[in-house]
Amino acid sequence: MLHAKAKEEAERRFHALADKVWRTVFLIEAWAWVRLNGGSPGVDGERFTDIEVYDVERWLGELSRDLKDGTYAPKPVRQVLIPKKQPGQFRPLGIPCKRDRVAQKSAMLVLEPIFEADLQPEQYAYRPERSACDAVRRMHKLLNTGHNEVVDGELSNDFGEITHAELMKSIARRVSDGRMLGLIKAWLEMPVAEDGTRMPISFPENAHQIPNRRSGRRMRSVRPCMRLRSSGNRTVRLNAD
């Protein structure tokens, strides 16, 4: 419904979105996605097993109440270091607490249909039912139909250098709900707690584990391809680092 309205009205700004974030149906789905993806504890040390022993329904109910009452406040992000390909170099990885991950995922479930409507066909990364593998298949097809050059570009530290003000302005172009914008701003400003942990790299650089909706299994994606555009006999690929 939100996607259809966003598609029909390119200038429409959506209000009354935050109340959906704390709805039980959204939080349950958000919990399922977060649980499936796994991950280490945040700064509070809370593990999935701790939540399950405590009772997931009760835990989600308390999160819903805090979001609704306006008492929810994200905790600092635990930062660990992931070894890069270059010897002695590390990439910082932020690990939010489980409460924050579920709240963020619930918000994404609400916002994604709106912003999906604005994305172009050549954009593949971080989109539902799309992956870097789809971009590779598209590139392979182009190479087999007369495109004989590939330009491979990369945005260095793209996520680490996003200007918060510009990002919020971009989101506000579609979202007028003050409480939703407030949540996003709070997540952007989450402080970082550095513990100096160095995690052994066991997956491709910049890879993300994503759930396979058909089988329910976890799948590992290859490095995300942000945009794929063809022009003349040239195919251009742009990665985000």
Describe the fold and architecture.
Helices cover 40% and strands 20% of the residues. It has 241 residues and is α/β, with parallel strands linked by helices. Helix 1 (2-8) packs parallel to helix 6, helix 3 (24-37) crosses helix 6 and helix 8 (164-172) packs antiparallel against helix 9.
SSE layout:
Elements (H helix, E strand, L loop, with lengths): L1 H7 L9 H4 L2 H14 L10 H7 L1 H14 L7 E7 L6 E6 L2 H19 L15 H12 L5 E7 L8 H9 L5 H11 L3 E7 L10 E3 L6 E3 L4 E7 L2 E7 L1
Parallel strand pairs: 1-4, 3-8
Antiparallel strand pairs: 1-2, 5-6, 7-8
Helix pairs in contact: 1-6, 3-5, 3-6, 8-9
**Overall SS class:** alpha/beta
Main beta sheet = 3 strands, mixed
Strand order of the largest sheet: 2-1-4
Low-confidence parts lasting 5 or more residues at pLDDT below 50?
A: 199-226
Strand content: 15-25%
Helix count? 9
For the secondary structure, the number of strands is 8
Mean pLDDT: 82
What is the first-to-last residue Cα distance? 33 Å
Radius of gyration: 19 Å
Instruction: State the share of residues found in helices, binned by percent.
Output: 40-55%
Anisotropy-based shape: globular
Please provide the ordered H/E string of secondary-structure elements. Answer: HHHHHEEHHEHHEEEEE
